[in-house]
Amino acid sequence: xxxxxxxxxxxxxxVDDHLDDYRESLFDLLRLRTISATGEGMDGxxxxxxxxxxxxGFDARRIETDRYPLVYxxxxxxxxxxPTVLFYGHYDVQPAEHPEQWDSPPFExxxxxxxxxxxxxxxxxxxxxxxxxxxxxxxxADAMPxxxxxxxxxxxxxxxxxxxxxxxxxECEDERGESSEPRAGSDATRERADPAxxxxxxxxxxxxxxxxxxxxxxxxxxxxxxxIYGNRGILTFQLDxxxxxxxxxxxxxxxxVPNAATxxxxxxxxxxxxxxxxxxxxxxxxxxxxxxxxxxxxxxxVTDADRxxxxxLPDDADEVKTDLDLTxxxxxxxxxxxxxxxxxxxxxxxxxxxxxxxxKTVIPHTATAKLDSRLVPGQDPDRAFERIRDHVASVxxxxxxxxxxxxxxxxxxxxxxxxxxxxxxxxxxxDADPVELPVLGxxxxxxxxxxxxxxxxxxxxxVPYANPDQGNHSPNEHLDLNCFENGIRTTAAFLERFADAxx
Length: 503
Description:
503 residues
């Protein structure tokens, strides 16, 4: 248990007293298979989240979408001028494939070696519930500061956040039949909204947020508390090539007949490497490890302040190499410079030809590659896809390029005053200096909040509560018990400091 003397928050003793209850509430939610990829358990999961929020001090309800429900909860301050924070989370989880690779059942929370092992423990049920438990603890301690707390929990983060996008664009209704039209923050909404009743319309309510706070992802690998000012975006896409009308005998046809596997891998290889404009000042990094697609770096908007944060990070590249049993990195540039400040194209999977035991001497007539591109601030998934599509067409016009899902990158200036109460809370609870990152290497749908006009310039901060080795998306995903506890304490300490902050 964290040493909280002096108290990081007035709620600390209450967290001590009710921690077992909070843990059991989390366990009940973890046992639910809420898998957005397949739809399993999503309807009941939304109801369970709604019940959890209601039982911990929120006025909560479902918001129906064409995909999966969102859950919206709020606790409105007595003072109408009190600051407002909007917490974001998601209740859907990744599938738990290959259960034989788990050391305990993937949907039965199991505590061992100081960690909660279960799918969704860290990503994201164990993180977003910390906000509800913090509000409950502050209420029980009669110490809730004058802050309006709003919590939006979606059910589709792991499959593209389509419901969240539709909601923020004003296309959904909650269970009370209240439409989110027109788009929250529009002039029409401002003129129509009645201050006494506008909290009944979630889309109108979130427009008043002074800060969007996202507890997701792992902390820095040092284990120190972490504040992140944004996240890289993502674009997924697929390449398909068909040559002949069937697989062919490699002896009878090998040589003159095109091989789909060979030709597609050549296209894939052309996407990365050294671009002719490297070292030209057009934004392409020097060296060979970059995205070799024309115009791909034109929109990159990385600031000197972002680079200064990266330069200040602990240099643990050798530890990463050792931990992963790597013989080398693909870059001579700094590990975090390449990870956080530059876009990528990554091959996620290749499929072609014979994959069974032994050999089969065939020429594959079809080949497929699944890829993703991580995008840095300034880049747009649609423009990135157009440039990739044009590049592929120039290399091999017969390759079909299909677009998958994507999130745009999101960035808050690193000198935003909204970070002050977050940094103070992290330091007080974790008793360590926080690590600050300009962006998260992974991708979150946080940028979608910027689609709401009145939130276009509102700070969005990512504050991960999960341990660095949480293993999200992998077998044996786990959340350290101290991280779960400290997450509750951090939210409580943040709310106390946010009440008096200038944001």
